[in-house]
Amino acid sequence: MESVVIDGSKGEGGGQILRTSLALACITGKGLHIENIRASRRNPGLAKQHLACVQAAREISDGRCHGAALSSKVLDFEPGTVRGGNFHFDIGSAGSASLVIQTVLPALFLADKPSRVTVTGGTHNPLAPPFDFLSETFLPAIANAGFEANCKLLKHGFFPAGGGKIMFDIQPWQKSACGGRRTIDLCEPDEQIQIHARIYTAKLPAHIAQRQEKLLLQSKLNIQDIEHIEVTDSDGPGNCVMIRLSGSSPKVGTTVFTAFGMRGKPSHRVVGEVVSLAEDFFARGAGVDRFLADQLLVYMAISKTGCYTTSELSSHLLTNIEIIKQFLPIKFSADEQKRQYKVCCEPM
Length: 348
What we know:
By secondary structure, the protein is an alpha+beta fold. Among the domains are: 1-82, 2-Layer Sandwich (Translation Initiation Factor IF3), CATH 3.30.110; 190-284, RNA 3'-terminal phosphate cyclase, insert domain (Dihydrodipicolinate Reductase, domain 2, 2-Layer Sandwich), CATH 3.30.360. 32% of the residues lie in helices and 30% in strands. The protein has helices at 15-28, 48-61, 97-109, 131-143, 206-218, 267-284, 290-303, 315-327; strands at 3-7, 31-35, 64-66, 75-78, 86-90, 115-121, 149-155, 164-170, 176-177, 180-181, 185-186, 194-202, 223-231, 238-246, 255-260, 306-310, 330-337, 340-347. The strands form 5 sheets. The protein has a 4-stranded mixed sheet, covered by helices on one side. Helix 1 (15-28) runs parallel beside helix 2, helix 1 (15-28) runs parallel beside helix 3 and helix 1 (15-28) runs parallel beside helix 8 (315-327). The longest helix is centred in the last third of the chain and has 18 residues, at 267-284.
């Protein structure tokens, strides 16, 4: 079996290197040897959520691995044949369920039949895509290239309690529609944007959401409405504030920005963070935000085409490009244009 060797200390040096490598090993059938896993993190090696990603990749591909243990810094993974089916993965902590989905989703789009994947863990975590981002931003974006999936939030899970549950129904990839090739083409920003906000609170005093709503209305953003969701099914307390940018184009979903509240972090900081993200996105005039930008790369590589504009070339984006190029004969270009970058993909 052909094998790819990955140094997990390169680039952003975190868990994304592991997740992308596992996904591409499943897609290509190539073996994976990865060392220095999460070398740049405070607690390097495999944590529970990363171990869940390894176990998920192994299950969907009937693969074999060595080194799949907590704190392990070296992993050998040999995938078998990816198969569709009904899968359930339990992280066993508040680790992000979204990141486990990110690992298996690309390969399951290429499976022989539809799949249903249920993941138990955190659904709204700092430093990971919240469920709303997956549902409203990510899935509509990859649907442009024929990657069709539906998702459902079965139970909320905030960090650090976890205990949330999400479910994805995944269809085999449809490469073309009506005789034409489907592709990710998100270069132009939507000119007709409506701004909405969403506040989640769980097991917290009412004045927190009231304060955050007041601060949102005082911002320079023209927010049309603010939705407050008082979560009743969470195992523990939680708070996050989202700004949702909804356009008129069917090609673009709702761009979701999120900031998380936590003990000792005042509401003005939470709201200030999410407002700054939205304001910066508007100022750059890009087609996709920097969080979505690195997640589109694998799907562009699978379809061997695609293009978008984004506000910055993040370390996650640049690292993902280098990992993908080690598995697939794909060429990426990233050209600076005024205050944004145009990222395109084509075969070698």
